[in-house]
Amino acid sequence: MTTPPAGLEITGVTVRAKGQPLVEDVTLEVRPGMFLGLLGPNGAGKSTLLRTVYRMTKPDAGVVRLNGEDVWQRSATWVAQHVGAVLQDMPTEFPLTVRDVVAMGRSAHKALLEPDTKHDAALIDASITLQRLENFQHRAFRTLSGGERQRVLLARALVQQPQILVLDEPTNHLDIRYQLSLLSFLREVGVTVIAALHDLNLAAMFCDQLCLMNNGRVVALGEPEDVLTPALLWDVYGVDVTIQNHPHSGKVLVLPGLT
Description:
CATH architecture: 3-Layer(aba) Sandwich
Structural class: alpha/beta
Number of domains: 1
């Protein structure tokens, strides 16, 4: 369902609001096919940084490049054809069905009022099946639970056939089964992924690299074992933690409050 993954370069990006920096001089690189997790407390700048990638918030300084192309020098349509976004909040008052919302993902590839083709329908069907939405694809989107809506929005993003997926706290509202299912799926989907996450252990389990942010700046960037350290987590979150290795996966395991 997807096209080859894209590389993402964020260079010296700064975003200000009323003169105050929300994101300040952030530079990072996401290689094609990588799953990068953005970590940090509320207000760290994660969501603002993501908005510069999918062309919602223009940086005051710096450049965001997708496969070498400055996203702010390309059209919104071009970005929508390459970047799929799953955000925290989406209006629910509109009278659309689940299938209607998923089908919206094809709009970036179509002219105004152009009808869906058999190819579009096949992509929509495949995305609905991947996210296990078949049994309520004709229900009104506004009647769904928060977790069900997240799965619908991911299906919509996949229908775009993006080269990169940008997700803002995608595991919110999901029970543990669907958190694991979603993150496993993102590991295997074959596109570049950059996601803001709150659960440190899920991030360590599924992400190739982590970017820890605080006060709009990058505090640490690298492998999970290099970022999730007691000293860094104390500095950023103000909590004591013990770091162990998961007994089965060997991945970093963060145990709060144990010293």
